[in-house]
Write a structure and sequence with these properties.
Elements: H1 5-45
Length: 70
């Protein structure tokens, strides 16, 4: 059995790096799942505004008038 300290350290680093990468991937997936669930829940819970169903005219009535002051 080879007990070279550098070989042992290298093996441990590879082992822990593998665990750390897997842990980070799982945490990233869980965070994405929580964000998606919260977004879905807030869209379902949020009350709809009565004007939401009206026709959206966008900026068709907007005029750029530099003489107007707010």
């Amino acid at each position: 059995m080879n007990l070279d300290p550098f070989l042992v350290l290298d093996g441990l680093l590879v082992y822990f790096a593998h665990i750390a990468v897997n842990f980070a991937f799982v945490m990233l997936c869980l965070c994405a799942l929580v964000i998606c669930a919260l977004t879905y829940w807030t869209r379902r819970v949020r009350p709809t505004h009565p004007d939401d169903e009206a026709e959206d005219v966008g900026l068709s009535g907007f005029r750029w008038d530099e003489d107007d002051e707010p």
